[in-house]
Design brief:
Strand order of the largest sheet: 7-23-8-22-21-9-12-14-13-20
Low-confidence stretches: 242-251, 654-659
Distance between the termini: 42 Å
CATH class of one domain: Alpha Beta
Strand content: 15-25%
Structural class: alpha/beta
Mean pLDDT: 85
Helix content: 25-40%
Largest sheet: 10 strands, mixed
């Protein structure tokens, strides 16, 4: 309907051609009917990825493994029964399958499996198994939508910040600052994954997404659209530096956007230990009972020492008490970690006195120090350093907010791996803080931008600290950094080659990190620690032929999926037993419908003794036989038909539906 206050309607009314004017008006009305207020962005074509592990089959799109051309072809047939030589469409000719790699678009059906690459049972048999999946996270999320729909308590992700500097990949190409569509590509990239992730959350579930300044505003609007603005809980601020100038020049702040699947069902979201009020009360009580400020300061420092592991670093720095009873901090320009490049002489502009650097160097680069001096923020000689009170800190910092140096995460990872292998890892202590606040002690915690594996370490350490039984599911990939990838390609090495894969983040960083933390031994055999009491298994995401799955030829690779759907705990059914069925504490599989009475009896006996399995799988192609099994099994236990439900799930998932 025309509106004479609308600029577009006024312009249309000025069109002289009546037919054209009518057509334009109708098109505008159609656009108005479909337009949504909020975040509007160009949705880019579905991503396509090269799947080095995917079997070459007739009808699939393929490219050359050596990346000598970006052209793709369809496999039309094979020259003989060995299937070693494929005949390609167009001008592709005949190619050895060893020279080819499958290219799949998101939206095409995939049939995933999990191939175990390392299994570390270092914890009690009843403890949860932490799971690490190396693979394309969109496909891994599709897999988890089958096994964990509505079962995840907390999702934490740290996606690419899209600054244009980190070189994240879209459609197998790095996206940089010069790409005019980098924001819309980034939003398309995240939207596809977040839509699936939303389905994984429990009604009481929470998602935390880390982000920087560049895309914070867009990400919040995207999350508003996907989860509902009414489910927004908190915008937390992570301060990694000290003063305002340090924040501006040393990396800024990070944000954590926090939403609930249904915010009304999420419990009170707060730090269980409000340290600031406790510290203020401790000092006030000490002084009112006759203690001197020095004695109150000593009690304060004992309190901080006892609780430091759980306290934000920004709070621990307030460890001084003056004669008036004020709790305060004073600036410290000395580095905790050695920084040889920050050793330079500082000159007092008033007195001309020169100050040599401390043994570890200053905390900032010389250019920043010069700015601080010019702004009068540096105290020289005996001039008193400016105090900041704990009350001012609590009142003036954005709420909720916390301060924690980013340097500690780098140093921690270097200590684990025996060298620097990964830039800017997440901090496990920061994640422990948020996991402690946002999820129960038996939570399932998912991170599908797993990178170096910090989330898994954080969950394991938190369990060791408080006796929790949290389970982490971490999805990472074996992506090679842009600089390293360039060097490898120049040397004739390409994705899928052994040398290339050895340099990827999963093989080079994540896997050795988690193995070292659990076992206490680095890959070179040197001792890191006594290890952790935890169970963890690492998998490669694989791609299967549906025909082979239907015929039961891929059971060993799909078996971990059934184990995961049963909770990923305890024994895994990996072989077909002679008796035709098997039952664990968590799940069961009926392989032969002829032994249904024995299987049903075992399940009923388990239920009678109070340990009903989570899910039961029945292998049969016959709907009638499956229905017969369902009627014989105890009511209230989920049942799944194999392999029909497996195959249909991943077909339906391409359209975004549910099993």
């Amino acid at each position: 309907m025309a509106d004479d206050t609308n600029v577009l309607d006024q312009l249309i009314s000025q069109v002289q051609d009546e037919t054209l004017r009518g057509r334009l008006a109708r098109e505008v009305d159609l656009l108005r009917g479909s337009r949504r207020f909020g975040l509007v962005f160009d949705r880019h074509l579905p991503e396509s990825v090269r799947l080095a592990d995917h079997p070459i089959r007739k009808g699939l799109r393929v490219a050359l493994r050596d990346e000598s051309t970006a052209e793709t072809w369809t496999v039309e047939r094979f020259t003989d029964r060995t299937r070693d030589i494929a005949v390609l469409s167009g001008d592709g000719g005949e190619r050895s399958i060893s020279d080819l790699v499958v290219v799949r678009e998101f939206g095409e059906p995939i049939y995933p499996g999990l191939r175990s690459v390392e299994r570390i049972g270092n914890g009690p048999a009843v403890a949860p198994w932490h799971v690490v999946i190396n693979g394309e996270n969109f496909h891994a999320l599709q897999t988890l939508r089958s096994t964990h729909r509505g079962r995840v308590d907390l999702i934490y992700i740290d996606p690419p910040y899209n600054t244009g500097n980190e070189g994240w990949i879209y459609n197998d190409r790095y996206v940089d600052q010069a790409d005019r569509a980098k924001s819309s590509k980034w939003l398309s990239f995240l939207e596809r994954r977040l839509r699936i992730a939303r389905d994984l959350l429990k009604p009481t579930g929470v998602i935390i997404v880390s982000i920087g300044d560049d895309e914070h505003h867009r990400l919040r609007m995207l999350l508003d659209q996907l989860l509902g603005s009414n489910n927004f809980i908190m915008n937390a601020v992570w301060q990694g530096g000290g003063s305002a100038l340090a924040r501006h020049h040393a990396g800024g702040v990070d944000y954590m956007l926090i939403y609930g699947r249904d915010a009304e069902k999420v419990g009170r979201f707060m730090d269980p230990k409000p340290f600031v009020p406790e510290m203020l009360r401790l000092v006030a009580d000490a002084l009112s009972n006759g203690s001197t400020p020095e004695e109150a300061q000593e009690r304060l420092r004992e309190f901080i020492k006892a609780n430091k592991r759980h306290m934000p670093e920004g709070v621990t720095r307030f460890n001084n008490v003056d004669s008036s009873g004020m709790i305060f901090e004073t600036s410290d320009l000395t580095n905790r970690l050695p920084r040889p490049n920050l050793r330079y002489v500082v000159t007092d502009p008033e007195s001309g006195k020169r100050y040599e650097p401390p043994s570890n160097g200053w905390t900032v680069k010389k250019a920043i120090m010069d700015e601080w001096i010019a702004a009068g923020l540096i105290a020289f000689g005996k001039r008193p350093r400016k105090k900041k009170s704990l009350e001012d800190y609590a009142r003036n910092m954005p709420v909720p907010s916390f301060t924690h140096s980013r340097n500690t995460a780098n140093a921690h990872l270097q200590t684990i791996l025996g060298g620097k292998r990964f830039p800017f890892p997440k901090d496990h202590e920061v994640l422990m803080r948020w996991f402690r606040m946002a999820a129960p002690r038996d939570a399932v915690i998912l991170d599908f931008f797993g990178g170096s594996g910090t989330t898994t370490e954080a969950v394991m350490r938190l369990n060791a600290e408080d006796g929790g039984t949290r389970q982490s599911i971490l999805v990472t990939n074996n992506e090679v950094g842009s600089k390293e990838a360039k060097h490898l390609r120049e040397a004739g090495v390409h994705p899928g080659d052994t040398e290339w894969e050895a340099c990827g983040v999963f093989e080079y960083v994540c896997r050795p990190r988690i193995s070292t933390v659990v076992k206490g031994l680095r890959p070179d055999g040197s001792r890191y620690s006594d290890g952790l009491s935890a169970n963890v298994e690492m998998f490669d995401l694989t791609y299967l032929d549906p025909g082979m799955v239907r015929r039961g030829r891929e059971f060993q690779v799909v078996a971990p999926l059934f184990w995961l759907e049963g909770g990923g705990r305890g024994e895994r059914i990996e072989v077909v037993p002679d008796q035709g069925w098997m039952l664990t504490d968590a799940y069961g599989i009926l392989f032969d419908i002829d032994v249904l009475p024995a299987f049903a009896g075992a399940v009923a006996d388990a239920a009678t003794h109070g340990w009903s399995p989570v899910v039961l799988f029945v292998i049969t192609d016959s709907p009638a036989e499956y229905q017969q099994a369902v009627e014989r099994l105890p009511v209230g236990i989920e049942t799944v038909q194999l392999y029909e439900d497996y195959l249909s799930n991943y077909t339906i998932n391409t359209a975004g539906g549910a099993r």
